[in-house]
Each structure stands twice: as C-alpha cells, then as structure tokens.
Write a structure and sequence with these properties.
Layout lengths: L31 H18 L8 H28 L4 H30 L4 H7 L3 H6 L10 H24 L4 H24 L4 H6 L1 H17 L10 H14 L6 H23 L6 H7 L2 H8 L1 H18 L5 H33 L3 H11 L6
Length: 382
C-alpha cells in the first residue's frame, strides 16, 4: 500500500509561486501533511502484521487510506498536467511511476526469493508479486504465505495502468469538465458498491471481498472524486473537528475483527473517513495549529516518506523473524516484536536513501522523461 501505495509516496514537487493555472484554481504542490497521513497509514499496517492485541483490521484501514491518497494524488497531477496545455503524456507518466516503484520492487523480489528458497516457500508467489497479480490470484482462492501484502500494490499498479487512459478519454475525447468527471466517478463508485453488495448477497468469502479489483476500486475512485472536487467551497466547512472525528473513526475501526460486516459496511465507512482526512489536509486555507504540528511531526512525516519501502519490505522481515524466534515465551515474543519493527525500519530507510532517492531525482530529469513526453502526449482535441 500501497504507493502503494502504497501504499504510494509520489514526492510531488512544490508548487511554484506563480498564480494557479488550473481550471478550478486549486494547485496541489507539496502538502507535507499528506506525509503525516501516510505515516499513520503505514503504522496501522505494521501494527496489524505484528499480531499485537486489538490490531483487528488495522491493516485494512491503513491500506484504504493509501488507496484514497493514491486516487487523489494521481488524478490531481494528471488533471493539472491537462490544464497546463490540454496534453497528458502517458509514456512520461509511466516512466515516472516506474522510476518511483520498480527499483525498490526489484530489491524486494530478490530478497524475498532468497527467503522463499531458504524456507521452502513456493516461488510462484514471487512471480505473482512481480507481475502485480497477487490480488487477482488471491481473489480466486490462491493461498499466499510470503507475499500476501502485495495484493494492494497490485491493485494500485492496475489502477495506474487503466485510470490515466480512461481520464484522457474523458477529458480529451468526451471533453468532460470537472462536473462531468465528478458525475462519471459517482456512477463508478455506485457501481463498485453495488458489485460489493451483490457478492455479499451471493455468499462470497472474505478473501474475495478483500482482493477483488472491482470491489477494492471503491476507495481509489473515492480519492479520484476528491481530486476532481477539492476546489469546491463545500470542503471549507471541514476543519480540525472533522479531521479529529475522521481519524478517530479510522483508528477505532482498526480494533474490530475481520468479518463480513467489515467488508460490507466498515470499509466504505473507513473510505469516507479517509476522504475527509485527506480533504482537510490537502485543501487550501488556514489549518488549525494542532493539525500542522501533529501531521508535520518529523518522525511521522519521515515514516510517510519511506512508507512505500516500509510497506514493501516489512512482511518479508516479519516472516524471517517469526521463523527464527518461534517460542511462545514472553522474551521471545518481545524479541520478535522489536526485531520486526527495527529491522523493517532499517531496511526501508536504507532502500529509500541509497536506492529510491537516486531514481526519484530522475523523475524530473529531462534526459529520462523527455523522449517519453514527446512521443506520447495526447493532442489537444480539434
């Protein structure tokens, strides 16, 4: 998760000092508070996978937050590119996504393959993860033991492949404005919800509800809708109290056990809470000091910046630690907990600073993206 997204850290560039040039007057730029939200999301995932008491669906909550963030950020960046010159370069978009996601994924796959061989786990799991198909095979009942968390990364990658193409068709060919896009997204969200409840009525199991791309699309689409409507004056009523309620709802939902109710009722509710949280942090205007202080707190912000690697590597680290320290004794349990968290942080930090940052710098290097940009821009409709 996610930049998974994902879990996903987009490292959006800071907005220039010039007046906004977007159709709705809102410019994304760099919103440090979003890193704080990512930090909270990845902590929920780590909490859930340590199997600590009351972890319940904390991992699901964290992933839903990542999905909303990804839908919001990707859609906003694409819309602002379109507003600048009625062009969106698909190749440039995919090159930038690859520079952000692939380097750490290659390291993860190599590391996890070694672990799979060492402990006798099927290498097919590595293949599904590398092809970004874990969610698909899990939704059809495949049992994944070493790479189950990559289902959300697969979902985000599928979103990156499909949504930009659809968005270009909507704004370039159908010439939809913000209102038209919002209506399309509302219809898509309603369809995803209807599909979710149809599966519930048909008796689908939790594995299917948790992984089916068309079910999970609800949270990503909600983020997309927020991106399209973020400039609306309706969001001005959202302040510190709304964020507190949203965060409390997100955290409280994490203590529930996984059940059919979780996926039929709680996940949509968590998505709404996550949308409110992102809207409060991302909107323009004054924000209460406590929001700036909490979400800008450097440990939380730093966790948000390394959240992609932290999400990616942590499950393999946890797997090895649990195999090497199996005892039920309190000392063994505490040793496992400390090693799981500390080693995950160390591996993610090393990956971010030694590998990922180098490739992130290339995202804005014309030598890496100019050819793609020239070859793949969508033309201004005639």
């Amino acid at each position: 998760m996610p930049e998974s997204r994902t879990a996903a850290d987009l490292d959006a560039p800071a907005a220039p000092a010039a007046a906004p040039t977007t159709a709705d007057g809102y410019r994304l730029g760099r919103r440090p508070g979003l890193d704080g939200l990512r930090g909270i999301a990845v902590l929920l995932v780590l909490w859930n996978h340590t199997a600590l008491p009351y972890s319940g669906t904390a991992g699901t909550v964290g992933v839903v937050a990542f999905f909303v963030l990804s839908g919001f950020l990707i859609t906003r960046l694409l819309l602002e590119e379109w507003d600048r010159g009625h062009r969106i370069s698909l190749p440039r978009f995919y090159v930038r996504r690859a520079l952000r996601l692939v380097p750490a994924m290659v390291i993860y796959l190599a590391m996890t393959a070694v672990v799979a061989v060492r402990y006798g786990e099927p290498l097919s799991q590595i293949v599904w993860a590398g092809l970004y198909l874990t969610n698909v095979v899990r939704s059809f009942g495949e049992f994944i033991t070493l790479t189950p968390h990559t289902w959300s990364l697969a979902m985000e990658e599928q979103f990156y492949l499909v949504w930009p193409v659809l968005l270009i068709l909507l704004v370039s060919r159908l010439r939809l404005g913000r209102r038209g896009l919002a209506l399309v997204l509302v219809a898509a969200i309603a369809a995803s919800l209807a599909y979710r409840y149809a599966l519930v009525a048909a008796g689908a199991d939790l594995q299917r509800l948790h992984n089916d791309p068309f079910v999970v699309a609800f949270s990503l689409l909600a983020g997309c809708l927020l991106a399209v409507t973020i400039a609306s004056t309706r969001y001005r009523v959202l302040g510190g109290t709304a964020l507190l309620v949203a965060l409390a709802a997100i955290l409280a939902s994490g203590i529930e056990e996984k059940s059919m109710a979780t996926y039929s009722v709680m996940v949509p509710a968590i998505t709404v809470a996550a949308v409110v949280a992102v809207a409060v942090v991302a909107r323009d205007g004054h924000k209460p000091a406590w929001i700036v202080a909490v979400l800008g707190w450097w440990p939380l912000s730093y966790l948000g910046r390394i959240s992609y690697g932290l999400y990616l590597y942590h499950y393999t680290v946890y797997f090895v630690v649990k195999r090497e320290f199996r005892g039920p004794e309190t000392e063994q349990v505490l040793t496992r907990l400390v090693l799981e968290v500390v080693l995950s942080l160390v591996v993610a930090a090393l990956s971010y600073h030694v590998v990922e940052t180098w490739f992130l710098k290339k995202k804005d290097d014309d030598r890496w993206t100019s050819v793609a940009s020239k070859s793949g821009a969508t033309p201004t409709p005639s």
